[in-house]
Design brief:
Length: about 180
């Protein structure tokens, strides 16, 4: 478990040792690791690495992270790697967006449509094959941004992107509020 201050540049690995997150950001990152589970909370949130670890100790699937997401402020990105599946989500309000596309058939996701479009169009950065979240932004774009590049999609607020190691992806709705 780690907590990094803003202005850090880093590469984080899946439990397998392969690159998972590549970042150069001006926001806080709080990490938790339990077995093969890796969780990153990116953005300003009063959660500590120890508390995040406590919240995820009983998680066995990425779908079970809904309860963890509900415990966080709606001003962060939540990125999870577990058993060859990655979950990426922004805020339910849409302020923290997630965009995704493919690079050489490999799904990549990030919070900046312009960065993903450039990487996918040029295909020249070898490390981009490992990108799961990159280019964190300071000015939120709108979810109906008209100038998205072909093949680039904006994830709807209240959804998370599920990426399998096979390359299969799904946009799944999560429950931001507990239904009683």
């Amino acid at each position: 478990m780690t907590q990094w201050p803003s202005q850090s540049r880093w590469v984080l690995a899946h439990a397998s040792g392969h690159s998972w997150l590549i970042g150069s950001l001006d926001q806080d990152v709080t990490l938790a690791s339990v077995g093969s589970l890796r969780v990153a909370v990116i953005g300003s949130c009063p959660i500590t690495a120890a508390r995040l670890t406590d919240l995820v100790t009983t998680v066995h699937t990425v779908a079970e992270l809904d309860s963890v997401a509900r415990a966080l402020l709606d001003q962060v990105h939540l990125v999870v790697s577990l058993n060859s599946v990655v979950r990426v989500q922004g805020s339910t309000s849409g302020i923290r967006q997630v965009f995704h596309t493919r690079l050489h058939g490999v799904p990549i996701a990030g919070d900046r449509a312009d960065v993903l479009a450039k990487v996918a169009a040029t295909g020249t950065e070898e490390q981009a094959l490992a990108v799961r979240v990159s280019g964190w932004w300071t000015t939120p774009p709108t979810s109906d941004e008209p100038n998205l590049s072909p093949g680039l999609r904006a994830l709807a607020p209240g959804h998370y992107l599920q990426i399998h190691s096979s390359g299969a992806i799904a946009e799944l709705r999560w429950q931001p509020l507990t239904q009683e």
